[in-house]
From TrEMBL:
Keywords: Repeat. This is Putative cell wall binding repeat protein. InterPro entries: Cell_wall/Cho-bd_repeat. The keyword Repeat applies.
C-alpha cells in the first residue's frame, strides 16, 4: 500500500481543500489529519502511472456499455477513485465507473459527468455550482 502525503489548505472561499501527492502507482489509503487533530480516512484511491513511466499493466475495459478499470494484478477497481490523465473517476462496489450521478464525499458532493470524469468549475444541469476541486458544499450535510 502506498503512502500518500496530504496537506489541508484554505482556499480563496475559506474552505479547506486537500492536496495529495503519491510517490508510486497502485492502491493507496489516504488518511488526512484535519485541523482538529482527528485522523479522517478519505477512502481508497488507485493512483495510475504516478511516475509517468507507463509501468502499470491493466487499464480501461468496456463491458456491456459500462466502463471498468483493471489493475495490474488482474482485479478491478471497486469503491475507489482513479486519477487518469488529470481527471478523476469513481468506481462503485461493482467495479463500474459512475456516470451522470452524484457521489457523496466528506461534507460535500461530487458529480460524475457523462464521460464519467468528475466535473469541476461548472454548474450542473440541475443548477449546482461545482468548485475547482469538483466539490459542491451542502451546508445541511453532515458526515
Amino acid at each position: 500500500m502506498n503512502v500518500i502525503t496530504a496537506e489541508i489548505v484554505l482556499n480563496e472561499e475559506g474552505l479547506n481543500t486537500i492536496r495529495y501527492h503519491a510517490k508510486n502507482a497502485g492502491n493507496a489509503q489516504l488518511i488526512v489529519v484535519v485541523p482538529s487533530g482527528a485522523a479522517v480516512n478519505m477512502g481508497t484511491f488507485y493512483v495510475m502511472d504516478a511516475r509517468g513511466d507507463g509501468t502499470i499493466d491493466g487499464g480501461w475495459i468496456q463491458e456491456n456499455d459500462q466502463w471498468k478499470y483493471k489493475k495490474g494484478d488482474g482485479s478491478f477497481l471497486s469503491s475507489a477513485w482513479l486519477m487518469d490523465k488529470g481527471k478523476r473517476y469513481y468506481f462503485g462496489e461493482d467495479g463500474v465507473m459512475a456516470v451522470n450521478q452524484w457521489l457523496k464525499g466528506w461534507f460535500c458532493w461530487y458529480y460524475a459527468g457523462p464521460d464519467g470524469a468528475m466535473m469541476t468549475n461548472t454548474v450542473t444541469s440541475d443548477g449546482y455550482e461545482l468548485d475547482d476541486t469538483g466539490a459542491y458544499y451542502d451546508p445541511t450535510m453532515s458526515d
